[in-house]
Amino acid sequence: MNGYLARVIEEVKGKHGDEPEFVQTVEEVFSSLEPVIEQHPEYEAADLLSRMVEPERTFSFRVTWMADDGTWHTNTGYRTQFNGAIGPYKGGLRFRKDVNLGIIKFLAFEQTFKNALTGLPIGSGKGGSDFDPTGKSDAEIMRFCQSFMTALHRFIGPDVDVPAGDMGVGTREISYLFGQYRRLRGAWENGVLTGKDFASGGSLVRPQATGYGAVYYLENVLKHEGESIEGKTIACAGFGNVTWGICQKAADLGAKVVTLSGPDGYIYDPDGVTTKEKIDYIVEMRASGRNQVKDYADKFGVAFYPGEKPWGVKVDVCMPSAMENDVHLEHARQIVGNGVKYYIEVANMPTTNEALSYLMSQSGVIVAPSKAVNAGGVATSALEMAQNSERLVWTEEEVDQRLRQIMNNIYTMSVEAAEKYGLGYNLVAGANIAGFQRVADAMMAQGIF
Ligand SMILES: NC(=O)c1ccc[n+]([C@@H]2O[C@H](COP(=O)([O-])OP(=O)(O)OC[C@H]3O[C@@H](n4cnc5c(N)ncnc54)[C@H](O)[C@@H]3O)[C@@H](O)[C@H]2O)c1
Predict the structure, then answer these.
(1) Which residues lie below 8 Å from residue 216, measured CB to CB, with a gap of 6+?
(2) Are both 71 and 140 inside the same structural domain?
(3) Could you tell me if 176 and 215 lie in one domain?
(4) Which atom belonging to ligand 1 lies closest to the Cα atom of 165?
(5) Which residues form the pocket of ligand 1, taking CB atoms under 6 Å from any ligand atom?
(6) Which of 8, 28, 185, 359 has the fewest C-beta atoms under 10 angstroms from its C-beta?
């Protein structure tokens, strides 16, 4: 590996060994950049990479809230404003009990390149809390969101930092957060958050956008292979917001998602999660706060596999869409053994680096990286910001058409970037290089700080 890249990776490992997810993503992204760094000695001269791995600003804060039984609880809130070179900091909030600074920084680092790939003016950030929404009442969620925003509101704004949803944070939470922001600011600045409910200025298609975008990206990959999406079977993970969008768009286009999963195991539905009743039930399961996929099996009479992951099921396409490091080497081997040709990452960093290297070394498997595949969510968030700025509402068709165009562009840019540096048809390296190049150009142009 290029000496400069190796040195920065070693420095990150030495300094942030207690943040394994952050180290993992830095290593993954930087390992693709060798030809770029070799051709641009000015990056090393300006020590660009050391500045890219250091967030511009990171803070944590106290979030105290009252449970329905009158007891008080205190959680930690986080926000990392990672890179503002190409626009206001932008990235989701995650509410999940395992959230810590390393997780937030890994997500924000990924977000830097993802946001750049959209071609829109959005920098990167990420935040969240170790608050566990499982089993919480609606009133508890509301009080938590109000307290979280009371602590955060003076550090964000439509031109400063624009949070959105992530795991555990959907339309309901974003709208509660916005309500509290409005109350505190005394002004209608609804561009401060994206993923709001429609009446508060949320964009049409935003709830489905990450899943829809992932399927549009998949269509590009299939087209490259001379295939169509019609009739394809897809294994998904989770039953969250992203998986719900994939199920809908796949069904619209004649494909079917046959697996969903949860912390309790996975379900296999040979007919596919294709009907309105099944797709609506995903929303119901997510809102129930029970966090178990077994409910789907009980309701629709399909098989449930407790404690297992869905990666051993024979399908045409695998789309891990729930959480990071869900697919390990043993699962990757099962995927290859089953002859799956398309491995399309959707969740942020769903594959361990070991499993990813193995999958990429297999000539029969096409691997697409999450930072490109799931960028439709943040891209549509940027479209929501545009609508909020011009105080107009775009139709569903207009938003969807722009989303599809953005996903096509991301795919094409990634293919071209890998080809330009002699790496062939490599969607993983191409996305890393194309995203890096845009941020690097802006950082170099703005001077060293
Ligand atoms: N929401 C977005 O717009 C968006 C955008 C880009 C990327 N992402 C990424 O996509 C992924 C999913 O996000 P989401 O918004 O759908 O979150 P979500 O909270 O709506 O859903 C997460 C799902 O993961 C499942 N899950 C949790 N622990 C699990 C485990 N141990 N095993 C299997 N499943 C488990 C939960 O049951 C839930 O169904 C995350 O990696 C997120 O960072 C989301």
Answers:
(1) 249, 376, 403, 404, 407, 408
(2) yes
(3) no
(4) 1
(5) 165-168, 210, 237-242, 261-263, 286, 291, 321-323, 347-348, 374, 377
(6) 185
Q: Kindly state whether residues 30 and 164 are assigned to the same domain.
A: yes
Give 436's pLDDT tier (boundaries 50, 70, 90): very high
Q: Quote the ligand 1 centre to 244 CA distance (angstroms).
A: 10
Q: What is the pLDDT of residues 283-299, one digit of tens each?
A: 999 988 899 999 999 99
Whether 287 is covered by a domain: the verdict is yes
Q: Are residues 133 and 250 in the same domain?
A: no
Q: Are 237 and 309 in contact (CB under 8 A)?
A: yes
Residue pair 85/123 in contact (Cβ under 8 Å)? The answer is yes
Burial class (CB in 10 A: 0-12, 13-18, 19+), 71: exposed
The domain that contains 130 carries what CATH number?
3.40.50.10860
CA of 238 from ligand 1 middle (Å) equals 6
**Which pLDDT tens digit goes with each residue over 238-269?**
999 999 999 999 999 999 999 999 999 999 99
- By DSSP bridging, strand 233-236 and strand 317-319 are parallel
Same domain, 167 and 250: no
Q: Is 126 a catalytic residue?
A: yes
Domain boundary among 373, 400, 423: 373
114 is in an annotated binding site: yes
331 CA to centre of ligand 1 in angstroms: 19
* 286 and 342 within one domain: yes
State the distance from the centre of ligand 1 to the C-alpha of 419, rounded, in angstroms: 32
Active-site option among 13, 15, 105, 126: 126
Rg (CA), the chain: 21
pLDDT digits (tens, 9 = 90+) for 11-32: 999 999 999 999 999 999 999 9
Domain final position from 373, 408, 427: 373
ipTM of the predicted structure?
0.98
User: What gap in Å lies between CA 372 and CA 375, rounded to an integer?
Assistant: 5
How do residues 54-85 score in pLDDT, each as one tens digit?
Answer: 999 999 999 999 999 999 999 999 999 999 99
Report which protein residue has its CA nearest ligand 1's atom 32: 263
Q: Secondary structure of the chain: what % helix, strand, coil (to 5)?
A: 50, 15, 30
Question: 70: Cβ–Cβ under 8 A, 6 or more apart, which residues?
Answer: none
Are 220 and 183 within one domain? no
90 is in an annotated binding site: yes
| Structural domain span for residue 134 | 3-188
Q: Would 416 be classed as within a structural domain?
A: no
The total of structural domains in the chain comes to: 2
